[in-house]
Amino acid sequence: MVKHVILWTLKEEFSPEEKAKIKAGIKEGLEALQGKIPGLIDIKVYTEGLPSSNADLMLDSSFEDEASLKGYAVHPEHVAVADGKVRPYTASRVCLDFQV
Fold it and tell me: What is the domain partition of the chain in residue ranges?
């Protein structure tokens, strides 16, 4: 199994209210991919970090293997969520992919 974990920070220009809506949209969009992408085992977005956090939200996903992760990256439904709900609003992205 392969884990795919991403931490994002949102752009500073957004108000706390806007950030809450953006995070909800990212969570809804990404979690809706469950069952639609071959090899995707589980996908969860966490939007409420503790005050000690220095990221705004986290994606925690699991794939059958590295080939499934590569397929997810280019899958049209994932690309639509990334281009429409994630990339326009994020300032930074940190990713760690690893084998379990």
Answer: 2-99
